[in-house]
Design brief:
Structural class: alpha/beta
Number of strands: 8
Radius of gyration: 18 Å
Strand order of the largest sheet: 1-2-3-4-5-6-7-8
Helix content: 40-55%
Shape: globular
Number of helices: 11
Bound molecules: flavin-adenine dinucleotide
Largest sheet: 8 strands, parallel, barrel
Length: about 290
């Protein structure tokens, strides 16, 4: 089923993100993770795409597994920088052959340790346009958004680019991690003024260890709220307490977003299903 259609019939979706591993052992772990996540009845599970990396090929393989064996809708992430049209065509055909109907169309990040071969696409919107031209409505297409702005662009310009991207043929939007819901609410107001009315899914990462916070801040512009800094300082030498507090923080964030009519909650599981399960259990009735 197309995710765009799921949003037409549901007030609130719940979904998960997993990432492809580097080796065969890791693949078995991901499959175990998927089996556990499936028990939580998600609306869809997404699989990331290693831009320029060696885990690229596994995205379709894992998405196919989600769809055929877990009987859950799969969302395949797909990045385009450094790619030629031939490679994009090959992956699109593979997705089609494997009955994957949903793509999260992304630009990808420029690698810091090497140059990229010049490709045929500069931005996510170029990929979306290409998919729509080649495949029409064959796929439901999602795209990324950034409630604190994308780190390469100022807020206003980024909004203008988001509007262009959405108008190219996007069905739903999934956010980069954020830890302060107020950024989301003020961003949503701006989208309303720009008449961007696509379903907005909040990407939530339960921060359960100090290493994760470094990763988050290196990935994107994400303000660490005072409230959260206090948790980090208080429990930096107590991993078990930090884990519990991080989980409680994510749950509180979700309760507030659901009470404010968010369209979807997408949990970045980091391939750790236990954490996702705890969040789902703690918010069961709220998400109904
Ligand atoms: P775009 O929408 O193309 O925007 C990128 C930048 O270009 C922005 O600053 C935008 O304002 C600017 N821009 C857009 N159009 C123009 C224009 N015409 N002229 C000038 N500037 C312009 N990365 C991976 O490698 N693999 C993944 O699986 C993956 N999954 C993700 C999932 C989610 C939900 C999110 C939020 C991000 C994900 N990323 C992933 C990271 C993503 O690739 C990066 O954040 C990347 O830097 C931007 O991707 P985008 O699709 O948002 O790019």
């Amino acid at each position: 089923m197309k995710i765009g259609d799921i949003f037409k019939n549901k007030v609130l979706t719940t979904s998960f993100e997993v990432f492809p591993p580097n080796d065969k052992v890791g693949l078995d772990q991901v499959y175990n993770c998927l089996d556990t996540l499936t028990l939580e009845n998600p609306d869809f599970i997404s699989v990331t795409y290693g831009a320029g990396g060696n885990t690229k090929g596994r995205t379709v393989e894992i998405a196919e597994r989600i769809k055929s064996q877990n009987n859950v809708e799969a969302l395949a992430h797909f990045t385009c920088i450094g790619s030629k049209k031939e490679e994009i065509d090959r992956v699109l055909n593979e997705l089609e052959k494997n009955n994957i109907e949903n793509i999260l169309a992304l630009r990808g990040d420029y690698p810091i340790d090497r140059d990229l071969e010049p490709g045929d696409f500069n931005y996510a919107k170029d990929l979306i346009k290409y998919i729509r031209e080649k495949k029409g409505d064959k796929f439901s297409i999602g795209a990324a958004y950034y409630v604190e702005g994308h780190r390469e662009t100022n807020d206003l310009l980024d909004l203008f680019h988001l509007k262009e991207k959405v108008d190219t043929g996007v069905d739903f939007l999934i956010s980069q991690i954020f830890l302060d819901n107020e950024f989301f609410y003020s961003f949503r107001d701006k989208l309303e003024k720009l008449q961007i009315d696509k379903p907005l899914v909040a990407g939530i990462m339960p921060v359960t260890n100090a290493k994760q916070i470094k990763k988050i801040t290196s990935l994107c512009s994400c303000t660490i709220p005072k409230k959260f800094l206090k948790i980090l300082e208080k429990y930096e030498d107590n991993p078990a307490a930090l884990k519990e507090a991080g989980l409680a923080y994510a749950i509180e964030q979700i309760v507030d977003l659901v009470a404010s009519d968010i369209n979807g909650i997408h949990i970045y599981t980091m391939n750790k299903p236990e954490t996702a399960k705890k969040i789902i259990d703690a918010t069961g009735i709220i998400r109904k």
